[in-house]
């Protein structure tokens, strides 16, 4: 096995493997007589598990990865080490594509790693290339990155991942390696079945990371939210050269939080799809280089970002599942040093996300014409996230249990284990607040007006109805039926919440039809984007008429309503 260590040093510059697991996985893959399943936390060095064997094999390793952006990062990193890697994707200029295909047709191609998305893999245009490689016995390994995408129980299900099972038929005899950072037992079973792994050797590291401290703060109980966040950041960075990530759900929140922190003296930059590509790259580079310590981003930020000294990850809005949260918060402390992971929990936020999930499930069922067992998955996963925030108990233990691991020795690495009384007191205060303000008791009032009438508030009659409706909404701390941001605001006279909801639906439908084929777009992201766009129009409009005009403008055929025009949040 000296050649393995030699290659580790020569190609990657590493003196040793990062862990015994990493070494064992690489050796098993190089041996090549069994399929392999690797489950290691973010930053554990999973990519090396297939990249190193790829260099020691005579053929090409085919790597399946879900996002073009992720692929591009990997390919760039490999090329910077002079490792022949490339990707065939829809964004590739024809000339470059031609050069790659020419190399792949050679008797002994130069290329060692070929990255594709599952969509590209199953596309007709890629089939001749694939069967050419397969028939000449040139595929050494099949590596499936982010393998949890194959499972409908996983937090990022991608239907095209299911087609990978068929590919195994075509590539019979080629060892398969499935990699993921997050796989509860049910997801693991799905991965093995869907990828047709034959008695795979499994290399799993427990999810517990003792250097991460988890805590929850109820946002609605904090009088000065930005001041609270600022104090936390100052403590987390502690004068070090470290940095942090704040995740927000919408573009507007990214802007607002970054602005407020900068006012308070912590330099922070927003990062979201509404920014021009150059501004986004600048924000990321400034953060990577340590010029700006805090990046305030939507969840698309971080995939493939490999930064060791992230001292904190804050979720200003809830993650959509506990698995997503584990992955996102896990970007902290990759260097193994103590780091903080905090959720600013908000009941209003929770209701809004629940609304989006319910709506998405209903839409899927309507389209399909039936209900299925796994329709519940998104909601179950979200409830696990909510329980993580609302429970009395060790946060690490909750995460470990979720992933099927033993209870870890937290040793004070979460708020509950450090001070259970304080956690209890916070929960009690939150309960008191929700019983005084209370969730929705009555049914949504139904008015006699159609959409247009309501948009203009239906004259005096309509305004009356509107006032009642507003009074109803204002009385609620959080209302699962009011997904609209600032639903309680009466800033624009005669603009009803119902009308705003209708506009939101129109924007959402328009986004769906524009982005229907986009591989990287989840429906819940489209919904969030629609909410964000609606909210921006609301904030920018001075009257109901101007609001309506702005919505109509966005819906007009000449206007391309998508992430690229800077209209909203990431897709
Ligand atoms: N043996 C090693 N010694 C030192 N550094 C290593 C070793 N193996 C991997 N690394 C480095 O660790 C970092 C994280 O690796 P990698 O991106 O593969 O993690 P990952 O497990 O795939 O994380 P993610 O789940 O975020 O994709 C990279 O910078 C990589 O170069």
TrEMBL record:
<keyword id="KW-0862">Zinc</keyword>
<dbReference type="InterPro" id="IPR011545">
    <property type="entry name" value="DEAD/DEAH_box_helicase_dom"/>
</dbReference>
<dbReference type="GO" id="GO:0005737">
    <property type="term" value="C:cytoplasm"/>
</dbReference>
<dbReference type="GO" id="GO:0000724">
    <property type="term" value="P:double-strand break repair via homologous recombination"/>
</dbReference>
<dbReference type="GO" id="GO:0016787">
    <property type="term" value="F:hydrolase activity"/>
</dbReference>
<keyword id="KW-0547">Nucleotide-binding</keyword>
<keyword id="KW-0234">DNA repair</keyword>
<dbReference type="GO" id="GO:0010605">
    <property type="term" value="P:negative regulation of macromolecule metabolic process"/>
</dbReference>
<dbReference type="InterPro" id="IPR004589">
    <property type="entry name" value="DNA_helicase_ATP-dep_RecQ"/>
</dbReference>
<keyword id="KW-0378">Hydrolase</keyword>
<dbReference type="GO" id="GO:0045934">
    <property type="term" value="P:negative regulation of nucleobase-containing compound metabolic process"/>
</dbReference>
<dbReference type="Pfam" id="PF00270">
    <property type="entry name" value="DEAD"/>
</dbReference>
<keyword id="KW-0067">ATP-binding</keyword>
<feature type="domain" description="Helicase ATP-binding">
    <location>
        <begin position="27"/>
        <end position="201"/>
    </location>
</feature>
<keyword id="KW-0227">DNA damage</keyword>
<dbReference type="InterPro" id="IPR001650">
    <property type="entry name" value="Helicase_C-like"/>
</dbReference>
<dbReference type="GO" id="GO:0006260">
    <property type="term" value="P:DNA replication"/>
</dbReference>
<dbReference type="GO" id="GO:0009378">
    <property type="term" value="F:four-way junction helicase activity"/>
</dbReference>
<dbReference type="GO" id="GO:0046872">
    <property type="term" value="F:metal ion binding"/>
</dbReference>
<keyword id="KW-0347">Helicase</keyword>
<keyword id="KW-0597">Phosphoprotein</keyword>
<dbReference type="InterPro" id="IPR027417">
    <property type="entry name" value="P-loop_NTPase"/>
</dbReference>
<keyword id="KW-0238">DNA-binding</keyword>
<protein>
    <recommendedName>
        <fullName>ATP-dependent DNA helicase</fullName>
        <ecNumber>5.6.2.4</ecNumber>
    </recommendedName>
</protein>
<keyword id="KW-0539">Nucleus</keyword>
<dbReference type="GO" id="GO:0005694">
    <property type="term" value="C:chromosome"/>
</dbReference>
<keyword id="KW-0413">Isomerase</keyword>
<dbReference type="GO" id="GO:0005524">
    <property type="term" value="F:ATP binding"/>
</dbReference>
<dbReference type="GO" id="GO:0043138">
    <property type="term" value="F:3'-5' DNA helicase activity"/>
</dbReference>
<dbReference type="InterPro" id="IPR032284">
    <property type="entry name" value="RecQ_Zn-bd"/>
</dbReference>
<keyword id="KW-0235">DNA replication</keyword>
<dbReference type="Pfam" id="PF16124">
    <property type="entry name" value="RecQ_Zn_bind"/>
</dbReference>
<dbReference type="GO" id="GO:0005654">
    <property type="term" value="C:nucleoplasm"/>
</dbReference>
<keyword id="KW-0132">Cell division</keyword>
<comment type="similarity">
    <text>Belongs to the helicase family. RecQ subfamily.</text>
</comment>
<dbReference type="Pfam" id="PF00271">
    <property type="entry name" value="Helicase_C"/>
</dbReference>
<dbReference type="InterPro" id="IPR014001">
    <property type="entry name" value="Helicase_ATP-bd"/>
</dbReference>
<keyword id="KW-0479">Metal-binding</keyword>
<keyword id="KW-0131">Cell cycle</keyword>
<feature type="domain" description="Helicase C-terminal">
    <location>
        <begin position="228"/>
        <end position="378"/>
    </location>
</feature>
<dbReference type="GO" id="GO:0051301">
    <property type="term" value="P:cell division"/>
</dbReference>
<dbReference type="GO" id="GO:0003677">
    <property type="term" value="F:DNA binding"/>
</dbReference>
């Amino acid at each position: 096995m000296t050649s393995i260590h030699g290659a580790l040093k020569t190609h990657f510059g590493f003196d040793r493997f990062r862990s015994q697991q990493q070494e064992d996985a690489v050796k098993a893959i190089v041996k090549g007589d069994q399929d392999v399943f690797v489950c290691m936390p973010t930053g554990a060095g999973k990519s090396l598990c297939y990249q190193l064997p790829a260099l020691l094999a005579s053929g090409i390793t085919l790597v399946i990865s879900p996002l073009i952006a992720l692929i591009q990062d990997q390919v760039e990193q490999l090329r910077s080490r002079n490792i022949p890697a490339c990707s065939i994707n829809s964004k590739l200029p024809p000339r470059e594509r031609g050069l790659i295909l020419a190399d792949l047709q050679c008797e002994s191609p130069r290329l060692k790693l070929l990255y594709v998305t599952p969509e590209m893999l199953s596309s007709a245009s890629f089939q001749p290339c694939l069967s050419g490689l397969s028939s000449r016995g040139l595929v050494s390994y099949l590596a499936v990155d982010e393998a949890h995408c194959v499972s409908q129980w996983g937090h990022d299900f991608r239907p095209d991942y299911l087609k990978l099972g068929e590919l195994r038929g075509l590539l019979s005899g080629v060892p398969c390696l499935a990699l993921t950072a997050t796989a509860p037992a049910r997801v693991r079973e799905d991965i093995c079945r869907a990828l047709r792994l034959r008695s795979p050797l499994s290399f799993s590291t427990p999810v517990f990371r003792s250097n991460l401290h988890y805590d929850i703060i109820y946002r609605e109980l904090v009088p000065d939210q930005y001041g609270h966040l600022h104090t936390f950041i100052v403590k987390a960075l502690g004068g070090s050269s470290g940095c942090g990530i704040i995740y927000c759900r919408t573009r507007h929140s990214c802007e607002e939080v970054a602005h407020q922190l900068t006012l308070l003296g912590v330099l922070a930059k927003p990062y979201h799809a509404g920014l021009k590509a150059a501004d986004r790259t600048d924000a990321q580079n400034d953060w990577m280089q340590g010029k700006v310590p805090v990046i305030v981003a939507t969840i698309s930020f971080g995939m493939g970002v490999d930064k060791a000294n992230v001292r904190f990850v804050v979720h200003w809005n809830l993650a959509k599942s506990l698995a997503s949260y584990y992955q996102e918060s896990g970007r902290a402390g990759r260097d193994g040093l103590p780091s903080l992971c905090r959720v600013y929990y908000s009941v209003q936020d929770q209701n809004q996300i629940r609304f989006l999930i319910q709506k998405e499930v209903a839409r899927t069922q309507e389209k399909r014409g039936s209900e299925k067992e796994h329709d519940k998955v998104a909601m179950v996963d979200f409830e696990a996230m909510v329980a993580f925030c609302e429970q009395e108990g060790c946060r690490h233990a909750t995460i470990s249990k979720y992933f099927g691991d033993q209870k870890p020795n937290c040793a004070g690495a979460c708020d509950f284990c450090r001070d259970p009384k304080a956690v209890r007191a916070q929960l009690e205060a939150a309960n008191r607040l929700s019983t005084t303000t209370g969730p929705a008791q009555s049914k949504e009032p139904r008015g006699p007006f159609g959409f247009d009438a309501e948009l203009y508030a239906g004259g005096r009659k309509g305004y009356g109805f509107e006032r009642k409706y507003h009074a109803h909404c204002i009385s609620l701390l959080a209302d699962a039926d009011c997904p609209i941001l600032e639903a309680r605001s009466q800033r624009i006279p005669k603009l009803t919440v119902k009308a705003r909801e209708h506009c939101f639906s129109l924007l959402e439908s328009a986004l769906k039809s524009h982005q229907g084929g986009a591989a990287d777009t989840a429906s819940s992201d489209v919904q969030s984007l629609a909410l964000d766009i609606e909210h921006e129009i609301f904030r920018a409009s001075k009257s109901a008429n101007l609001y309506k005009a702005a919505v109509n403008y966005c819906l007009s055929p000449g206007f391309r309503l998508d992430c690229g025009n800077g209209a909203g949040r990431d897709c």
